[in-house]
Amino acid sequence: MGNNKVTTKGSVNNTALSLVQVAIMAAIIYIATSIIHVPFISGEGVLHLGDSAIFVAAVLLGRKKGAVAGAIGMTLFDILSPYIVWAPFTFIIKGLMAYIAGALAYRNGYEGKNFMNNFFAFIISGVVMIIGYFFAGCIIYDLPNAIAAIPSNTLQIAAGMVIALPLATQLKKHIKF
C-alpha cells in the first residue's frame, strides 16, 4: 500500500538538476533551430544550428538526457513552424540521434571528452538521422522526394558537426554536468 520508495534530499536535488539541464538544452536546441535557419533551395527543410546543439547536448548531458532535450527542442520547432507534419517523426528521429551520439561519445570511458570519438559518434548518429528522415519522407511524400532530401540532410549533419565538434569537446572538458 503506497509508495515504498525512499526519497532523500540529494535525489530530489539531482532530479531537479536533471530537469533543469534538459529544459535548458531543449530551449537552446529550439532557439538554435528557429533563430538561424536558411531554407534549402529544394524548398524542403532548412539549414539550421539545431543539430549542432543536439550534438552538444548529447556530449554534455549523455544519452538519456541528451535524447530528451533533442527530441523536445526540435519537435517544438516543427510544431511552431510550417513543418508541423514532421513533428512526430522529428521527436523519434532527433531523440534517437541524440541518444546514439551520447551513447557513443561516452563509450569506453571517453565521457564525451575525446574529439575523435565524438567525431565517430556524430557520424553514426547523423547517418541514423538521414535514414530516419528518408523513411519519414517516404511516408509523408514519396520515394523520389525522400531520395532528393538526402543531400540536404547530409549537409545539415556536416554543418552541425563542424560547429559541434570543437564546441562540445571543449565544453565537456571545462564544464561539469
TrEMBL record:
Pfam families, per the entry: ECF-ribofla_trS
UniProt KW rRNA processing keyword: no
The UniProt record lists the keyword Transmembrane helix: yes
Alphabetically ordered keywords of this record: Membrane, Transmembrane, Transmembrane helix
Membrane-spanning parts: 20-41, 83-106, 118-141, 147-168
CC annotations in GO: membrane
UniProt xrefs under InterPro entries: ECF_substrate-spec-like
Protein name per the record: ECF-type riboflavin transporter, S component family protein
